[in-house]
Amino acid sequence: MKNKFSFLSTAQLTGIVLLSVAALVIFFNPLLAAAIALFYILLCVTASFLPQSSFYLPVISRGNTGKNLVALTFDDGPAEPTTRQMLDLLDTYSAKATFFVSGINALKHPDIIKEIIARGHTIGNHSFHHNPFLMTGSYKYLHQEIFRTQEILQQMDINTLAFRPPVGIINPKLPLVLNELGMFCVTFSCRAIDCGNRRIKNLSMRILKKVKRNDIILLHDIPARSKEDNLILLSEVEKILQGLGEKDLKIVPLAGLIGRSIMIVKR
């Protein structure tokens, strides 16, 4: 079932107001009119780089449970051996996570996708190629990147409902695509800015220092630069799992935190 974004977005409403004002004053003060139009353009550009912004469409970036709950999410995989190692760690701490997978990696590792599901976790769509410049492309390209991943996962009997844009960047075309595909947008509210496991030193400290209840935590399940770094990564993730418990924050499935299903599995 498709979503119905029948309402005007904040971006559209803001544009109507500001550009109408600019049109009214252009005959009296062209410079002011240009400044208003430029302000709107800058506002649109800035909003694209704010993962928690609902400027263009409703974005779910955190829960609203009123309880000491958080959700763990992993981006960019699945990948060997990291995803399986993360799964083992999650099992050890009886924690459930959501893996936002790229289509190209899902195609390479269908067995890991099946293992993620078998272990009680959920799958989200993270585009096919994980192009960080995805949102600069056309509507057709954006649709293709998301739809192609949907097709791959559907061949594995998984229908994902949640999409996370690469790097958390959003643009005006995204709500049109998600509406067409019957999906919604999930970003995050707590991250370590690890650059895809390239900055793993003190990863746990950076997360635990700022995490709070109802946060959606962003981590990655792709290999670090070396085997040594990968061991450090696993240690850091384990520290996060331990630290959340020490802060009295319970890890729950993403669906439980946001009150929406992340995927549908065909049995």
Task: Describe the fold and architecture.
With 267 residues, the protein is α/β, with parallel strands linked by helices. It has 2 domains: 10-48; 61-265, TIM Barrel. The protein has 10 helices and 11 strands. The strands form 3 sheets. Strands 2, 3, 4, 8, 9 and 10 form a 6-stranded parallel beta sheet that branches. The chain has a 3-stranded parallel beta sheet with strand order 1-7-6, with helices on one face. Strands 5-11 form a two-stranded antiparallel sheet. α8 (203-210) links the parallel β8 (190-191) and β9. The chain is globular, with a radius of gyration of 20 Å. The chain starts with 9 loop residues before the first helix and ends with a strand.
CATH architecture call of the largest domain:
Alpha-Beta Barrel
Domains, number: 2
Total beta-strand segments: 11
Compute the average pLDDT. 93
The H/E string reads: HHEEHEHHEHEEHEEHEHEHE
The assembly state of the depicted protein chains is: single chain
Q: Number of DSSP helices? A: 10
Q: What is the C-alpha radius of gyration, as a whole number of Å? A: 20 Å
Give the biggest beta sheet: 6 strands, parallel
